[in-house]
Amino acid sequence: MSAIPVYRWRLAPEGLATVRQLRALGLRPGGQPVVAQLERPRRRREPLIAFLYRIDLARPVRPMTPAKRAALAKANAARQVCPECGRDAGYRIPPSLGMCVPCADAPRLAA
């Protein structure tokens, strides 16, 4: 049993929001504790759970600095280089494949 209140899907009181809802408002939780939990039932599986935060205690999202923007661009560029062939794929390589699509399809085409 949890110590925080649990609300059903779409029945949370006003003044509470999920992280995504806060982000859409230009806010972030800002270190505040989770005040409630939202559950969305699903058939034959565990319910989806989202944590709720108070909107009045949320802080503004920190602005993107030039250094942070450059670091993100560098990280995204590194994710586009295929470790197998070394080419720039032009898209972010899926972690499930671990390589570009042509390299992943090559063993199936050779067989």
The proportion of strand residues reads 15-25%
User: Largest sheet, order of strands side by side?
Assistant: 1-4-5-2
Distance between the termini: 54 Å
Contiguous uncertain segments of 5+ residues: none
Radius of gyration from the alpha-carbon trace, in angstroms: 21 Å
Oligomeric status of the shown chains? single chain
DSSP, total strands: 6
Largest sheet: 4 strands, mixed
Helical content (DSSP H or I, runs of 4+): 25-40%
Figure out the total of helices. 3
Q: Mean pLDDT, rounded to whole units?
A: 91
Which structural class fits the helix and strand makeup? alpha+beta
Shape annotation: flat
SSE arrangement, N to C: EEHEEEEHH
Explain the layout of strands and helices.
Elements: E1 6-8, E2 16-17, H1 19-24, E3 27-28, E4 36-42, E5 45-54, E6 59-60, H2 66-78, H3 101-110
Parallel strand pairs: 1-4
Antiparallel strand pairs: 2-5, 3-6, 4-5
Produce a short descriptive summary.
The chain has 111 residues and is an alpha+beta fold.
